[in-house]
Amino acid sequence: MLRKLALAAVAALTISASSALADDALFHDLGGRDGIATIVDDATANFLADPRIKATFDNTNMDRFKTNLTDQLCVVAGGPCVYKGQSMHDAHKGLHLTNADFNALVEDLQAGMDKVGVSFATQNRLLARLAPMNRDVVTK
Amino acid sequence: MRIDVLAALAAVSTSLLAIAPAFADDAPQPASSGSVIDQGMSMFDDGKLLATGGVSDLEGAGGGGLATWALTTGYGTRDGVGLDGHFTYIALPDYSLWTEGVAVGLWDRVELSYAHLTFDTEKVGAALGLGKDFEFDQDVVGAKVKIVGDAIYDQDSWLPQIAVGAQYKSTDHVDILHAVGAKSGDGTDFYVAATKLFLEESLLVDVTLRETKANQFGILGFGGDKNDSYSSEFEGSAAYLFSRDFALGGEFRTKPDNLGIAKENDAWDVFAAYFINKHVSVTLAYLNLGNIVIKDNQQGAYLSLQVGL
Ligand code: HEM
């Protein structure tokens, strides 16, 4: 009986350890917080060069934006970061963004991840977690 | 008619290919200024992500090749419209099939489509006493409406994008269709399509249920001596996205078996779709339609070009 319990405990520990591993797998596949910061740098350069959406950043403090976006993507990917920015709804509500704006930003982010060499499948794992934010971000 | 559409498609596609670099993935699009023309063109907001408009299926609707999907054709978002044309050629051992058509997607919700199918009986036509290369022509007018869900954005839910639609099909040579046992030269299919992108897995899945009387998609008319009521048929696709512009997949479609003179089989295909940009895509498939009238094992190549605004 005791042996069975011990076995069960080991099994449970193994499962929770592996699910903890699985939980931050995306964070690691994106290169940790440093990797994500590089992606955000490249992606932000793309946002600011993209005539479809660059005007929306006219009044934005870009350093704060990059820090907050990095922390947020880190949290979304399962990493050990703390996001100190506003909620997605509050951050975007005044911007009147459309689905076309949203997808333009996604394309620029994809280009940023391409540049760093993040595989397409890994990119999709991140985008799968960002896609539902569409409901808070797109207000037009 | 076929030649006109072909020439027009070819012209449009070469000009689009020529300007393609200007529209390449990350190349920014010119911001629209205030002129009427710019405002008109900005309806075509090109705002969807690459490949998320699907391609044009056999019957002219947005879908795969055999299956009609719940996605709205083209690249217009809910604030815009998308317009595309397609040309498809299917080479089977004993027959060939051409389809060409146009479709418009409105506000990522409503899709209207027209397709013209030409089925060439080649030598079988002579064997049946119709004459070599005897052709059946079919027009398909389709409408589709998205009811609920978003195949792309709703990644936090199991709910697929669901659309309902109808396709009115009308085939010529009704006297011959009657002679083979078909009850009518025209009919309407009704369907419910559920499509979902499993982005985490890079997998797109569609499941569609169709109420139909069509024999061989309607090319051999509607209803028959064996059965003249609607049958519930299944069609489905699964595609794995290898990159933003390339997908490989397979499809399956069941069909009614209404005619006494010839057994009708299920159809399947395996396909590769290449999205050159939001204006041009090419689909290549290996398609098996099974038995068609006196010839078994009709499997061969499927080649489709889609061009869009
Ligand atoms: C899933 C998609 C998106 C995510 C995850 C995201 C994330 C963020 C984050 C973390 C912030 C910082 C909030 C803060 O500092 O408190 C932010 C702000 C901002 N975002 Fe987004 N965003 C998304 C979509 C978009 C889109 C589509 C646009 C425009 C095309 C956009 C434009 C902006 C702008 C202009 C700001 C700064 C607002 C300000 O200055 O206060 N975002 N976003």
Describe this structure in words.
The complex is a heterodimer of chains A (140) and B (309). Chain A is mainly α and 140 residues long. Chain A is 70% helix and 0% strand. In chain A, helix 3 crosses helix 4 and helix 3 crosses helix 6. The longest helix of chain A has 22 residues, at 2-23. Chain A is globular. The relative contact order of chain A is 0.15. By secondary structure, chain B is mainly β. Chain B is built from 4 helices and 14 strands. The chains are: A mainly alpha (140), B mainly beta (309). The complex binds protoporphyrin IX containing FE. Residues 53, 56-57, 59-60, 64-65, 68-69, 72, 85-86, 91-92, 95, 97, 101-102, 105, 130, 133, 137 of chain A line the site of protoporphyrin IX containing FE.
Layout: helices, strands, pairs:
The complex is a heterodimer of chains A (140) and B (309).
Chain A: H1 2-23, H2 25-29, H3 32-49, H4 62-76, H5 88-92, H6 99-116, H7 120-130, H8 134-137
Chain B: H1 2-23, H2 36-41, E1 55-56, E2 62-63, E3 81-91, E4 96-106, E5 110-120, H3 122-127, E6 135-148, E7 161-171, H4 174-179, E8 186-198, E9 203-212, E10 231-243, E11 246-253, E12 267-275, E13 280-288, E14 299-308
Antiparallel strand pairs in B: 1-2, 3-4, 3-14, 4-5, 5-6, 6-7, 7-8, 8-9, 9-10, 10-11, 11-12, 12-13, 13-14
The complex binds protoporphyrin IX containing FE.
Residues 53, 56-57, 59-60, 64-65, 68-69, 72, 85-86, 91-92, 95, 97, 101-102, 105, 130, 133, 137 of chain A line the site of protoporphyrin IX containing FE.
